[in-house]
Design a protein that fits this description.
5-stranded mixed sheet; alpha+beta; Alpha-Beta Plaits
Length: 93
């Protein structure tokens, strides 16, 4: 089990990016969340088995057709134990 936090910049808000990420999380069996951040970035907090997580991250690095990913910063963080994947909003705790 591995967990990462990813900050993505580019044209990633208003183009269906969070829904794309959520669909791929379900596809690869990844738990955690995705949310828009103030300033136009998107944050992904994801955990799962290492190989599916890597495939999930490769898909997210591409994004949906309307998106443009300029920067994709990955940070390893301690496993949290998420039980599902969801879209969060900026003010969610």
């Amino acid at each position: 089990m591995k967990r990462v936090r990813v900050i993505i910049s580019g044209r990633v808000q208003g183009v269906g990016f969070r829904y794309f990420v959520q669909d791929n999380a379900l596809r690869f069996g990844i738990n955690g969340y995705v949310k828009n951040m103030p300033g136009g970035n998107v944050e992904i907090d994801a955990e799962g088995d290492e190989e599916p997580l890597e495939r999930f991250l490769m898909a997210c690095r591409q994004g949906p057709p309307q998106a443009r990913v300029d920067d994709f910063v990955i940070q390893d963080v301690p496993v949290y134990g998420y039980t599902r994947f969801r879209i969060r909003h900026c003010n969610d705790i």
